[in-house]
Write a structure and sequence with these properties.
alpha/beta; six-stranded mixed β-sheet; binds iron/sulfur cluster; 11% strand; 6 strands; Adenosine 5'-phosphosulfate reductase; 8 helices
Length: 234
């Protein structure tokens, strides 16, 4: 499959693989994606950990990794990205940048847009750069899991991303928290040090808080606001 494949061809590919790989393991899903798309595929990571990257590298050592470099990340997240780049020397990290720097955005929209209109801020700093980057690929791979949130309960292993117009593979969609933690510890996978401090779902610094013991991990995202998703996986 090449980047020249039509949207209809890609949709048909996603539908067929979605049925066939409905119960596939993470490795089987990644192997199919790499064999089908090769360099026309990119793995997304928010640098909370390198589980998905580690799985992908075992199938394609030089896999491309997409990081949304919003300009609002914790220093620890940037440090994790740089550590990942060192530990997996053959990967290609693609830093997707917003059109405006934080200073330019502040000057056009006023400071702290994230506090006043987080949907607009996420649109400018995440959704648009993601769409622009994904436009260069036919398939993206995410670490979305069904247990992340009720809105993700029906996440397929392979599906069609209508919003961005490409195949979307979620190799660990069916993993429980126990399976995830087991893979992380057994393989000594890199993890953002903030996780150990109680930040269980890490996004931009202004919109990420520590999570109380036993609480929903995503309750630390946009705490105190009605927003619960960036708009990346809708
Ligand atoms: Fe802006 Fe917060 Fe969204 Fe980051 S998570 S893009 S700071 S609103």
């Amino acid at each position: 499959m090449t980047a020249a494949a039509s949207t209809e061809q890609l949709k048909a590919t996603a539908a067929e693989a979605g049925r066939r790989l409905a119960d596939a393991s993470a490795e089987e899903a990644l192997r199919w994606a790499v064999e089908r798309f090769g360099d026309d595929l990119i793995v997304a990571s928010n640098m909370q950990d390198a589980v998905l990257i580690d799985l992908a590298v075992k199938v394609k050592p030089d896999v491309s990794v997409l990081f949304l470099d919003t300009g609002y990340h914790f220093a620890e997240t940037i440090g994790t990205r740089d550590a990942v780049d060192t530990v997996y020397p053959h990967i290609r990290i693609v830093n997707a940048l917003p059109e405006q720097t934080v200073a330019e955005q502040d000057s056009e929209y006023g400071p702290k847009l994230h506090d006043r209109d987080p949907n607009k801020c996420c649109h400018l700093r995440k959704v648009v750069p993601l769409r622009a980057t994904l436009a260069r690929y036919s398939c993206w791979v995410t670490g979305v899991r069904r247990v992340d949130a009720p809105t993700r309960a029906n996440t397929p292993i392979v599906g069609w991303d209508e919003r961005n117009g490409l195949v979307k593979v979620n190799p660990i969609a069916a993993w429980t928290d126990e399976e995830f933690d087991d893979y992380l510890s057994r393989n000594g996978i890199l993890q953002n040090p903030l996780v150990g401090e109680g930040y269980l779902s890490i996004g931009c610094a202004p919109c990420t808080a520590k999570v109380a013991p036993g609480a929903d991990p995503r309750s630390g995202r946009w705490a105190g606001q009605s927003k619960t998703e960036c708009g990346l996986h809708g």
